[in-house]
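Handoff note, outgoing to incoming analyst
You'll be picking up this chain. Sequence as last confirmed:
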Amino acid sequence: MTPTQRTGGLDGEAPGAGPDSEPRAGHELGTQAGPGAGHTPEPEAGLAPEPEVELDAELDAELEAELHAGFLAEAAHWLHGLFGPADRATAAVGRILDVGSGPGVASRALADAFPRARVVAGDRAAARLARAGARAAEHGLAGRITTQRAERPEEFARSGPVDLIWTGNVCRHLGDQQAAVRSLASALRPGGLLAVAERGLPPRFLPRDIGIGRPGLQARLDAAVEEQVTARRSRLPGATSVVEDWPCLLASAGLVPAGSRTFLIEFPAPLDVPARRHLHTRLHGLLTDLGERLDLVDRLTVEQLLDGDSCTGVLWRPDAFYLTAVTVHTARLCRPLATSRSGS
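Most recent structure output, in case you need it:
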């Protein structure tokens, strides 16, 4: 897939990051969304997606990851710059952790940005790790990208200090987000950097008025998702309420905030087939998960959007687009955490 995507950095302390997904029960590592689909003219006969075929969840996770490939490459390049001049940064980073790696799209971006580093892709799902390994081999990176199965962030601290940790959409799946940040920080060597992408602006893909149902459907879907996220987080083991101020959470873990940057991910209409399939699967998941949180009119509207035989369905609409923003927060370990705590 060759994306034609615009990404832009907006410096500042923007809250949250990452394409929205909902927390899963348990203290398990989540999986970050990854990267890039472009846009092509409306599908012609013979190129249209098969309406009756629903994407496997793992395949859809990879499609979403591909929608964000351009952003991940740009973010990795930005992180490289935080280590100083190019030669110094390349020499300084020898080991990287990609926590909640999913199919390994971020792992590849990090390996490309830091050509001397070895990258460990960590996830709780063996299938995702297998795909990450296959992706590394496809791009000639099998010798530099390895995989590690882990259920909890603290497991990474046991494998020795690292220079850079990337984690996307992981902490939201854990009951105690502050404890998760501390666990990740404990895996850093002095001078190492932790980059956290959490929450942010949810993906937008429909106009306000889509010609069916009541205008403003997407805003109501977003509101229902937020209510569900709050309810699910309250049921996570060890659930602890914190202000999701990520620079503050990083500082409370004994790190020194090193800056935040927001990246815009945009694919204008008309979308290509893989992007449309991802949106179709996303809407199907929303309809299943939100249940009674939607009123009858909105449920029927979503069902129309899922109709693969209708020109009003998301598989065919010429006005479907993809727009989201991801904020990455960074912080550095300036001295061993044990020393930092004893001196506080």
